[in-house]
Amino acid sequence: MKSLSKIFTRYLMTALIIILVTLFLNVFLYIVTAFRIIRSTNRQVSDSGEIAAELRMTEGKIFLSEKGYACLMPDYAWAMLLNDNGQVIWSWRLPNHLNHSYTAREIAVFSKWYLDDYPVTERVTDYGLFVVASPRNSVWKYNISDNIAAINMMADMIPVTLIVNIAFVFLLSLFLGFLFYRSLHTIAAGIKCLSEQKPIHLPEKGMTEMLARQLNRTSDILTRQKERLAQRDDARTAWISGVSHDIRTPLSLIMGYASVLKEDVSLTEERRQQAAIIELQSFQIKHLIEDLNLTSKLEYEMQPLRPADFHPSVLLRKIVSDFYNQGLSEPYLIELYIDPDVEQITLNGDTALLERAFRNLIQNSIRHNPGGCTVTVTAYPEKDSVCFQISDNGCGIPKNVIQSLEGILPDTEKAPHIMGLRIVWQIFKAHGCKMVFPDPRTIHILYFPEKEEDQKQTSFFGVLGRALFKGSNPRKTRTSTAESEN
């Protein structure tokens, strides 16, 4: 479950990054806002001081310079100057209802708060108290005072509060991440069971509710399909077994009577030849029935292998010798090439099935080339394996047959008849090998010798192997046909 741990770690890292970015933005906005407030306050104080500095007195009269008016006009509502008795001795745009004498109490109040809802700023000058007012609802004014110890404590609390907030958010993210991880762990376990063709039923709740529901539905569909396939396969196997059993008895009678008629000297030569043909075709039907049973058992892994050690060179010589000893027709020739390095190699497998597979390959070349051909059987070492090559100079294997074997063409009623090659394919597959077709006239089988440590773990179907085509020109060391017959 390393992938889930990685998802969980990335989730926590993402949450942590979001927290840090959020805190940084908050601190940044706080600093900017505080700076603007301080700057605005400083500007008002600075402006009131600059304007008050432009007050002048000539011949007992107080007036404001043009520079002072230039500072007042764009940003302020009114201004006035009070003497020590609270009387207005100069004013600019002062509302009539504010143009009166002010007591010390009134001055103390508006210096801390507002004067008739006007935020005012005061400045002490040589001529009196200068008061300048900003427009209503333009400046927030509040008088704050607090204990120094309390302010220092608040300053000390800021980093502690920040750490507590970070810890709380991190623990919350960790808890939510754990819940998410647990949900994903359940989903991952369900997917693993599905890949192993096991039924599942996941709890449909939490963040992965929809995904769990879909996986449960998929599991139900696959279970039903598996049951239907098992029923179909059982019916197919039973049907093949029943038909084979029913045909076997009448076929034996046909073969027996045909053999008797073939040897009956009272019949004409033509009738005896017809009986021989009936016997030959009956043998063909018998072989087809055996092939049908064998391919069915191999397909459903019902054919137990009987693995044993054997020398591939001895097996090939026996097969080729049998073809010649059984009377190989004149237009056909079988050449056997065995590399000297193969002579000492020992393989492990079911020799009866392997012999049948090699015989089928040679027999196919003979059957499908009625005009005659040369079949070449070669065995040579290839890295840590033995490569068997069966080739002929005849018509070759049709392309659609190869595609059907490799699963490229669908297995339908229009598919070519490939019973013999299919059995060969299944036998080598059961031994862990794979047939490769480098060209239509050549077949390669790569067979790996069983290692000592593998012998302790030999499966029901024997030797592990692989198939790989490394080239169409094998190294040849000829063993003569005469040697093959001995």
Q: What's a quick, concise take on this entry?
A:
By secondary structure, this protein is α+β, with helices and mostly antiparallel strands. Helices cover about 55% and strands about 15% of the residues.
Structure commentary:
- This protein has 486 residues and is an alpha+beta fold.
- The chain is 54% helix and 16% strand.
- It is built from twelve helices and 15 strands.
- The strands form four sheets. Strands 13-14-12-11-9-15 form a six-stranded mixed beta sheet. It has a five-stranded antiparallel beta sheet with strand order 4-3-7-6-5.
- Helix 6 packs parallel to helix 10 and helix 8 packs antiparallel against helix 10.
- The longest helix is centred in the middle third of the chain and has 55 residues.
- The radius of gyration is 51 Å and the shape is rod-shaped.
- The C terminus is likely disordered.
